[in-house]
Amino acid sequence: VKDDVQMQWKVERGLVVNTGHTIQINLPGHSTTMIGGQNYALKQFHIHTPSEHQVSGLSYPMEVHFVHATSDGKLAVFGVFVEIGAASEEFGKIMPFMPASTASSPTETSPLNLAAMLPRDMSMFRYRGSLTTPPCSEGVLWSVLSSPIEMSTEQVTAFRRLFSANARPVQPMGPRAFEGPAPRLAH
Length: 187
Ligand SMILES: [Zn+2]
What we know:
- By secondary structure, the protein is mainly beta.
- Helices cover 5% and strands 38% of the residues.
- It has one helix spanning 153-162, and strands at 5-8, 11-12, 15-18, 23-26, 32-35, 38-48, 62-69, 75-84, 107-108, 112-113, 124-130, 138-145, 149-151, 178-179.
- Strands 1, 3, 4, 5, 6, 7, 8, 9, 11, 12, 13 and 14 form a 12-stranded mixed sheet that branches. A two-stranded antiparallel sheet has the order 2-10.
- A hairpin with a 5-residue loop joins strand 7 (62-69) and strand 8 (75-84).
- The model is unreliable at 174-187 (pLDDT under 50).
- The site of zinc ion has 5 residues, from strand 6.
């Protein structure tokens, strides 16, 4: 974790919603992240395939966006890459219950250990950009984690059955303005 990040992520039940753009898991907002002295509540996370960020020109199969907001609406997002590997126990509580369409009722998850959805190595790089799913808000503080998490082929396939491709055109990591050293993301 960067020096300026302090996380208090809890075990929470989520509400799994099909937004028409993605599967989004809405949270009660009890989990918080302090970034640079600003306190953000974790509001939701959602999934893109393939990844929206690239590393050395390569996409990952999926990318999860953990979206935080301050009480006055400032947004901060953690982008977490997904690679194929072992099944994720926590995402296993979501994948079987994804509503098939926007008309389907949202489903509540069993308790999710949110911190267990992140990689052990929390190295991250940061830039200011916009939110990739509607509404596109400017001024989002992005933190992209260098280490991916793993999901099984079956878990990725389950998502892709609903959304075969829902990433916006790739955001190359090169020319953006980063805080701190340039990303070292040899894949
Ligand atoms: Zn997103």
